[in-house]
Write a structure and sequence with these properties.
The protein is α+β, with helices and mostly antiparallel strands and 151 residues long. Helix content is 27%, strand content 30%.
Amino acid sequence: MQTKLQPGDQAPDFESIDQDGNKVKLSDYKGKKVVLYFYPKDNTPGCTAQSCNLRDNYEQLQKQGYEVLGVSTDSAKSHQKFITKHELPFTLIADEDKSVHNAYGTWGEKQMYGRKYMGTFRTTFVIDEEGKIEEVIGKVKTKEHTAQILK
């Protein structure tokens, strides 16, 4: 099941930890625009392409007033390695209990090669300064993701 959240909805607040074990809440970013992107797994080809595209365009995103937060079910330790390996300048959220995924409707049954499994729906939420969802990007182009956000 894909997310039921729509543009205009209030983005669900959450509390989780970042790559350094610090608490992170969406409400900490009130007054800033946020790119909240959910991706399946650290250091896999598509997720690396997506994260590196955001990294390479990070300055441009910041000039437009965006903070970038990545979310996956990987551990903080896995996130640290991913950040170090690819020099990612933004926060990654360790959602091991899937509470953030569940709040955003980005976790569910997927199918590949006829096999069903539970996983992350690669989805990006563009959130305004008031915490309202401006856009939901469900068909993420990993190598052109920034262009989808700033279009």
